[in-house]
């Protein structure tokens, strides 16, 4: 147990330090790594939304996918699978992104923001854990999106091929791509450095199964703190990295934090929504990206839902800004709660009916046999 705890802390520590290093090399402050933000930037770069300050083909995402793919193939763990309520996963991914963009960051960025002194992330953290707690109540009552089944191997290659395609577009820079000239999308580490960092993190996460939602879920549900130690490792080493590499940007407080707002209620509610959806999906945005690289078509659908949510959020003014959360974003979060909780309730009722039918059939079969 001690040896395992040490390994997961080191694994998390590498991720945390790489995040601080990427900031030093050009990525936005408090956003060395953010899956939600990076998928949003990619959606913008592909022209799926028109927010000119968040458009860039982030190579880190391709690195996560390809790192997971390569190591899964090497270890014999690549397996094409899917068919577990794909449409529901798309919708849950969509609203996960809405919650994240109202908070202005995915759960990983929440930890990294805290490691750079942003106390707004404490509010987000409380909301995220509360959301996971709500999701656990659904799981306890029988929520399940169903089992994945084996699929043709070509299904498993879709996301790795997509990741390679993004890299080709990034380096060739065809005219139809969009690149920010200012704002967060214009802040970036050198592409090859970002890709290398993504590959390393993708390999680590595929081997460790580290997940922000899984860390808090397991701690609450089964009192297993293994993944939580990995999250602590991310925080501690990101904090050390920021103090060593980025002291000029380190600032403890609520106000004046980069790419953040101080609307406590909506920071909280945005991450509650992200927590519920991550728990129901069985993984946070980062975990879904890693699963997509190792052949999980359901995770691919979730990632597509995340990208659709990002495009929708910026096309219709749902995403927050440093000045706060607009009325459209607030309405979207409320709609998200209604839809996501409705999905949870409906799935539980459906699973109860299926179990009841199976029990009736087993009872009748036993009577006939007797």
From TrEMBL:
The chain crosses the membrane at residues 87-112, 118-136, 157-179, 185-205, 226-245, 265-286, 298-319, 331-348. The keyword Transmembrane helix applies. Keywords: Membrane, Transmembrane, Transmembrane helix. The keyword Transcription regulation does not apply. This is Uncharacterized protein. It comes from Alkaliphilus oremlandii (strain OhILAs). The lineage of its organism: Bacteria, Bacillati, Bacillota, Clostridia, Peptostreptococcales.
